[in-house]
Amino acid sequence: MQPPVPPRRPTILEHHGVRREDEYYWMNDRESPEVISHIEAENRYTAARMAATEDLQREIYEEIRNRIRQDDATVPVRIRDYFYYVRTEDQKPYPIHCRKRRLDAEEEVLIDVNRLAEGHEYCQVAQLAIRTGQDLLAASIDFVGRRQYRIRFKDLRSGEWLDEEIPDVSGSLVWAEDDATLFYVKKDPQTLRPDRVYRHRLGTDPAEDELVFHEKDETFHVGITKSISRQFVFIYSEHTLRSEVRMLSSHDPEGQFEVFLPRGESHEYEVDHLGGCFFIRTNDQALNFRLFRCSEEDWSRESWHEIVAHREDVYLDGFDLFDEHLVLEERKDGLVGFRVCDHDGRMHFEVPFADPAYAAWPGANPEPSEGSFRFHYSSMSMPTSVFSCDLNTQEQKLLKRDEVGGGFSTEDYVTERLWAPARDGVKVPISLVRRRDTPVDGTAPLTIMGYGSYGISIDPNFSAARISLLDRGFVFAIAHIRGGAELGRAWYEDGKKSKKWNTFHDFEDCVEFLVSQNYGAADRVFAWGGSAGGLLMGAVMNDRPDLFAAIIAEVPFVDVVTTMLDETIPLTTGEYDEWGNPNEREYFEMMLSYSPYDQVGEKAYPHLLAKTGFHDSQVQYWEPAKWVARLRDRATNDAEFLLKTNMSAGHGGASDRYESYREAAFNYAYLIERSRSLDSSCAR
């Protein structure tokens, strides 16, 4: 079967005197029958090319399903007078949200998403909020996958959904403490930028809801939260490099929001409240952030008192407040740590971790009166565990560890932490896992993943699905490249805008280092990344195609210049400080130098599997569709370029957990088959 051949209709795009020809620009018409027909033809072609792996896909799917306990439940979390948890049932694809008055009491089902999803190909409950009286919930629900939600209300006494509904919201919502007022966020209908906060009185027409704040700056987006004390509602206006917080007493929902601190150039801050004080995490004169405290009576900048100073080697990632304690989430040498202090920042102790590479993150800690801090922990060889740490005695208690079936034993796997030398002398951390019996002799297939954008750190956590790859002899690595924040804010700043090439070069240097250290065979290196990590895949694929046997790029951001010049596309205006504004020639030229679609050349390429969602609001489906078509036009070898589009999902993929297993099985089967084909070609 031959791949689809879309018509080439050149469109000339000109900026800064540079003319670019885009022969597939026409694919950005979401409503076009021709576009949909082409996407469906690509799906048929990919299915046909992957048909030989169907038995392997089914085998891996069953492995994944058997490893993950199908009837499971999260550890209950106390919120006010109830214990809340989420559970799953075998054969049911969606979670069930529940609560109990006491742990030994009868279960109350809040939302069975399986029932909610009936008649829909996609269903996601983004946020669930229960009002103070604990008798009514509001839930933001998406039935498309485009992250355009509707708010529905459920009476928890009768179990009935109310007719009242608020459409076209962002998913962010907060109850005031009066049991009648809900604050929520709406999006700009064109760009889908969350930009307006409304006040809704229960029982009234949503069309009459009052607009309480409109963020007119197109580079900012809006969200709402509630303080841990429940005494304040916060509106966050956030930009890549700036933020501004407005606040209102949650006991006075009809009042006016006040600005906590006006936005400033390159100033980011966040606020929480407890015990009559505001706590402020800020990067004011502190690249890696520091922490202040002030009285709720006077929150002017002059009244702030520093309680955690800035440190050049430690990144303050966040904090959790308790009545008598403060827990700091910090990063040092690329790994997360928790430091327990009093409210003045005086340290009591650090939570110890032993693995060379691991992931740790705060759990749900909604009640500051609790004397324990809940957190999650895992490594690439240790299943996710939930711990409780007594803040007075330092005693840790294991509350739950995910059960992994299929004969899994953590002792069969090895996790390692390595440091690769980048070409400019910087050391780049790598997290790696393999089976203990997989040889480190330069013969194993190697899969390496990367992201490197937005200051997002990719932590080395556990994946039950990944075991199917490791058990077939693969080594799996994560390159913690610049553009993330694993080594602090400077690590992020050194991999963005005019320094973006550091991200791509770091990834290439990590590949060469691992091969030189015999962790993988030079002719069977496979790379994997999604979204901005898909941009990474496209950039290194153009720059060093010789390094890779095949690449998986999920929801890849590959048409960088055209997208960043189109202010009508979601996310564009809010990301100028991430990529640069291409209306400025310096950034236009920088983007053009690495934009995967623009830089496709006549050269030998590795094989590619590109995956996308038709309803994706973050990276539009047409970016990978155009990319694949152009690669086929220009590649000088017989590399195969596959495109797989989920027609009923968006950026996050399928909402059905079993469909997620199938997608994982598809990806792994692709890599395994590609590795096996290299064995066959060698045999010939």
Multimeric state:
single chain
Mean pLDDT: 95
Structural class: alpha+beta
The CATH class of the domain at 11-64 and 410-683 is Alpha Beta
What does this structure look like?
Helix content is 19%, strand content 34%. With 684 residues, the protein is of the alpha+beta class. Among the domains are: 11-64 and 410-683, Rossmann fold (3-Layer(aba) Sandwich), CATH 3.40.50; 282-402, Methylamine Dehydrogenase, Chain H. The strands form eight sheets. It has an eight-stranded mixed beta sheet, sandwiched between helices. It starts with 10 loop residues before the first strand and ends with a helix.
Question: What's this entry about, in short?
Answer:
The protein has 684 residues and is an alpha+beta fold.
List the helices and strands and how they pair.
Elements: E1 11-15, E2 18-22, H1 33-49, H2 54-67, E3 77-79, E4 82-87, E5 96-100, E6 108-112, H3 113-116, E7 124-130, E8 136-142, E9 149-155, E10 160-175, E11 181-187, E12 194-201, E13 210-214, E14 221-226, E15 232-238, E16 243-249, E17 258-261, E18 269-274, E19 277-282, E20 290-295, E21 305-308, E22 315-321, E23 326-332, E24 335-341, E25 347-350, E26 359-362, E27 372-378, E28 385-390, E29 396-401, E30 413-421, E31 427-435, E32 446-450, H4 467-470, E33 475-479, H5 489-493, H6 501-516, E34 525-530, H7 532-543, E35 550-554, H8 560-564, H9 576-579, H10 585-594, E36 607-613, H11 622-634, E37 641-646, H12 657-683
Parallel strand pairs: 32-33, 32-34, 34-35, 35-36, 36-37
Antiparallel strand pairs: 1-2, 3-4, 4-5, 5-6, 7-8, 8-9, 9-10, 10-11, 11-12, 12-13, 14-15, 15-16, 16-17, 18-19, 19-20, 20-21, 22-23, 23-24, 24-25, 26-27, 27-28, 28-29, 30-31, 31-33
